[in-house]
Design brief:
Blueprint (H helix, E strand, L loop, with lengths): L2 H7 L12 H12 L4 E3 H7 L7 H13 L3 E3 L9 E4 L12
Antiparallel strand pairs: 1-3, 2-3
Helix pairs in contact: 2-4
């Protein structure tokens, strides 16, 4: 055993940073370029990232962003519509988990 192996033996493993909300992160990155104050499901399905063109995945990603404070639900005049206000924060590269 050489010197470096002996020194590394008692060293703890490096923690890896995992991003479990990759779809929500893609939506958050896209919302940074969205020029309106609100976004609805139709906008995400038409103009959003290709991986979010499924209504279920788009709504799931938006709900994750609501839980993390990046979106707030908007008051609607239709029961079957989903719309959110975008919370703009002055952060250089935003992440879902705060």
């Amino acid at each position: 055993m050489n010197l470096f192996e002996r020194l590394n033996k008692d060293r703890p493993k490096e923690a890896t940073i995992e991003q479990p909300h990759s779809e929500a992160q893609k939506m958050l990155n896209w919302l940074g370029r969205w020029n309106k104050d609100t976004v609805c499901t139709k906008d995400i399905l038409q103009f959003g990232p290709k991986s979010l063109r499924n209504p279920k995945s788009a709504i799931d990603a938006a709900e994750i962003l609501v839980r993390n404070g990046w979106l707030t639900p908007a008051k609607l005049h239709r029961y079957d519509m989903r719309k959110w206000h975008i919370v703009r924060k002055p952060i250089v590269s935003p992440t879902v988990a705060t």
